[in-house]
């Protein structure tokens, strides 16, 4: 390792002194202008990881669903998986080493991880469409080359495409060809084969509206469009020609605001979906005839896909085990439906794809989805071999079912959640089962829920157990949550420190939206009080300018209402919304009629 060269080049990507960043749930993420040194250093680290694993390593430059001004970087391990936890620690150490210490830290890592330095290294790089991404990926390349690693820069790619490339390269092409064309061909062939099996295809014009979050998904779906045109016509919105990345659109916006993205023309009962900024998440939705918005999130996607797979397994009479993996954010109705109606075992892990992915590997067929729309299906090697064998040996209907399973294996991107691949699986299942989007939505009804954020001095004072469903510290917080939850029907609530933002997240679910809101606010206040809240106590949730959602949670906590915090609010008794009068001065004791348009 030529440490003098490392030092010299590092100076061109100098670390702002004092800046501390953490390799979080999905790599490093912050404002793009703070990331140059991180990119260079991750280039260095990828070379070490490649030498150590004697495999190709991936680096993706993206900040996913975060604002356009942000950026981020993550490393992809040999089988297309997230970086191993011990290397996340190395990544954090290297990124935070002050300029003069960096070469020593690099050397320490290579010793600790027993990297054979004379081994060759190969790194593949991808980036999203952010204005900062091109320059930052150049810094990655500087890092790779200074350690004499070889590389291939794929340029613009979706995150899951990069995962795919890494896996293809490390399996000698068995998984597919490590080119964009290879990716499009593999997926489209499987999609066309699968949908050919549908008994009622052809009589319906299959079309789907796709909100691409003004991101990379638009470019890549455009490239893919003609490969699938015979089976599905896609109409792209927010394709990046006008709007800003992830701004008022994309999967994260739609899921968290539970409303349609801007820039999408929706007619009633049309199937629509949204990707996130790097196209590794997808959610579906539609407007009903009354113009009401219906969200179909990752939980319902998991339900659709796993029920389809289970039916195919029943058809071929094979007892391969199937399991669904969720996080605490999964809607209670989805878990109940999967367990009680579909009789599929459900497991819960901590938030973050790597945890779900890991758990899903325990099954012959492991379906995992986060409610936010990130997910995929994993087939064990043994299951794959068995299915392929059955597709050759069985006859008639059984053979057809086995062939379908074989095609699903090729259609799903097993390396990571992939909006494009998931979209095609979903579309194929809807065609094969002859389901409309409404029928899919009607599988079960989501319990009303609410997510809130609370700012505290140090979010690490909150530690959790039981897949983040129970708080361990600070003392008293779990008891407070338990007491609050008891006051509502069908309710559940949990809190966890975010892995991507400096806040604590609160989730609550209950029998009505009002109660879910109320419980979420009450829990937020408990967090604020018991976990060192900073600034103002949790504000009520803003619905639109001048309008806030409220239930008198003060009463629940034994506080007087109206509280001084809301002395500009006019309160309508029994109605859980407060309309704040911008000039102040409304009379809190006088009920006002609820306004139309509550957002
Ligand atoms: C990251 C994770 C996502 C998780 C989210 C939670 C990956 C690829 N992405 O975006 O799975 O849901 O973080 O964020 O792992 P939070 O910790 O801020 O709630
Ligand atoms: Zn993403």
UniProtKB/TrEMBL annotation:
Residues 471-524 form the Alpha-D-phosphohexomutase C-terminal domain. Substrate binds at residues 370-372, 496-500, 505. Its EC number is 5.4.2.3. Residues 51-97, 114-167 form the Alpha-D-phosphohexomutase alpha/beta/alpha domain. Its cofactor is Mg(2+). The active site is at 64 (phosphoserine intermediate). It comes from Enhydra lutris kenyoni (northern sea otter). It catalyses: N-acetyl-alpha-D-glucosamine 1-phosphate = N-acetyl-D-glucosamine 6-phosphate. This is Phosphoacetylglucosamine mutase. One of its GO terms (biological process) is UDP-N-acetylglucosamine biosynthetic process.
């Amino acid at each position: 390792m030529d440490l003098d060269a490392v030092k010299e080049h590092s100076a061109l990507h100098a670390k702002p002194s004092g800046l501390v960043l953490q390799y979080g749930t999905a790599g490093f993420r912050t404002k793009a202008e703070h990331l140059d040194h991180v990119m260079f250093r991750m280039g260095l680290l990828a070379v070490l990881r490649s030498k150590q694993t004697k495999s190709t390593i991936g680096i993706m430059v993206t900040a996913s669903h975060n604002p356009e001004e942000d950026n981020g970087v993550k490393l992809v391990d040999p089988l297309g998986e997230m970086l191993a936890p011990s290397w996340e620690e190395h990544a954090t150490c290297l990124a935070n080493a002050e300029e003069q210490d960096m070469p020593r830290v690099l050397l320490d890592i290579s010793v600790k991880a027993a990297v054979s330095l004379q081994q060759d290294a190969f790194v593949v790089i991808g980036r999203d469409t952010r204005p900062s991404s091109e320059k930052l990926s150049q810094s990655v390349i500087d890092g790779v080359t200074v350690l004499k690693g070889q590389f291939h820069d794929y340029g613009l790619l979706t995150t899951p495409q990069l995962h795919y490339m890494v896996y293809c390269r490390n399996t000698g092409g068995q998984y597919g060809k490590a080119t964009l064309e290879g990716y499009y061909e593999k997926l489209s062939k499987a999609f066309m084969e699968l949908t050919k099996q549908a008994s009622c295809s052809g009589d319906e014009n299959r079309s789907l509206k796709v909100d691409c979050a003004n991101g990379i998904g638009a470019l890549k779906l455009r490239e893919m469009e003609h490969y699938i045109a015979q089976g599905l016509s896609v109409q792209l919105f927010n394709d990046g020609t006008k709007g800003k990345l992830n701004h008022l659109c994309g999967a994260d916006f739609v899921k968290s605001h539970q409303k349609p993205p801007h820039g999408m023309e929706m007619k009633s009962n049309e199937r629509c979906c949204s990707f996130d900024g790097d196209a590794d998440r997808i959610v579906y939705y539609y407007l009903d005839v009354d113009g009401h918005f219906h969200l179909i999130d990752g939980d319902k996607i998991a339900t659709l896909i796993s029920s389809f797979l289970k039916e195919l397994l029943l058809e071929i009479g094979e007892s391969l085990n199937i399991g669904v993996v969720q996080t605490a954010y999964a809607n209670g109705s989805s878990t109940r439906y999967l367990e009680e109606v579909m009789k599929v075992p459900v497991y819960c892990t901590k938030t973050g794809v790597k945890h779900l992915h890991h758990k899903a590997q325990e099954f012959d067929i492991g379906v995992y989805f986060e409610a936010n729309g990130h997910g995929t299906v994993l087939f064990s090697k043994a299951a794959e071999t068995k299915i392929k064998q059955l597709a050759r040996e069985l006859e008639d209907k059984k053979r057809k079912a086995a062939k379908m399973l074989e095609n699903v294996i090729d259609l799903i991107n097993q390396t990571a959640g992939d909006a494009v691949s998931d979209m095609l699986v979903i579309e194929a299942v809807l065609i094969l089962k002859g389901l409309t989007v409404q029928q899919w939505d009607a599988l079960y009804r989501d319990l009303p829920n609410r997510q809130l954020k609370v700012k505290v001095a140090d979010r690490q004072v909150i530690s959790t157990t039981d897949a983040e469903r129970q708080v361990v510290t600070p003392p008293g917080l779990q008891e407070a949550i338990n007491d609050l939850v008891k006051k509502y029907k069908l309710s559940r609530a949990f809190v966890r420190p975010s892995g991507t933002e400096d806040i604590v997240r609160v989730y609550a679910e209950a029998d009505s939206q009002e109660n879910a809101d109320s419980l979420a606010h009450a829990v937020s206040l408990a967090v604020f009080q018991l976990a060192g809240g900073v600034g103002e106590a949790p504000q009520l949730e803003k619905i639109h300018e001048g309008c806030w959602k409220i239930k008198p949670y003060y009463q629940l906590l034994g506080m007087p209402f109206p509280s001084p915090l809301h002395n500009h609010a006019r309160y309508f008794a029994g109605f859980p919304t407060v309309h704040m009068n911008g000039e102040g001065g409304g009379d809190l004791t006088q009920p006002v009629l609820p306004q139309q348009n509550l957002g």
